[in-house]
Amino acid sequence: MSHWDIDGCTVDGMKAAKPADSPEDRRRRKARRTRDALADAACDLILSQGTAATTVEAIAERADVTRRTFSRHFAGKEDAALDFVRRDGDRINALLRARPAHEPPLTAYRRAVRAWLTDPDDPPWQLRPRMRRLLALIDSEPALFGAYQRIRVDAQEESIRIIAARLGTDGALDVRPAAVVDAAAGVLVAALRVWARQGDRNPGAADLAALVERAYDALTSEAAAAVADSTTEE
């Protein structure tokens, strides 16, 4: 038997030690745990007592950190409560970058969204029970709605850059990347809004994913009908 057993990562029957975490890795994990604790605290408090009655100090106290620590992670309480929106936007964009180059932009975005919604190892935050309630609250809380819009626009701007790169064009001058992203992201937002308003009548990952797929089908069928109609008029 060879002294080197590559499949088992062993040397003379002894398992090779994994590389030790670097101090930077440990700091990054600690920062992520703190950020998650603050986001969870913000969600809990805003859902239980509303945005106006929730203070940054209360969020920091609930997460067992200082007010200064909160400010290192978030600009305000609304940003903390909606941190899941930013993270999911980052995930969709990462999946969009990984789509095959031959896919049309709208197809690539749609499939990136599908992969995000159906990832069994890291389900989207929307599927946590309280996230549906928070999404529904966004429409009635102006401060939350404003923060949601800012976060969504940031994610879409990155999506536009990704689509522009796929098309080999300048997204600041070519309208196509923005048109694709605004349409595709708008469909997702519309589906999420409908899903949130359904409450507990339509729980589960499969239901949300199916609703999003139907929404994209509606977009493509309406676009095809519009093209056919414009051709007939000519």
UniProtKB/TrEMBL annotation:
Keywords: DNA-binding, Transcription, Transcription regulation. Residues 55-74 bind DNA. Residues 32-92 form the HTH tetR-type domain. Residues 1-33 are annotated as: Disordered. Gene3D superfamilies: Homeodomain-like, Tetracycline Repressor, domain 2. It holds the Pfam family TetR_C_14. The keyword Transcription regulation applies. Transmembrane segments: none annotated. This is TetR family transcriptional regulator.
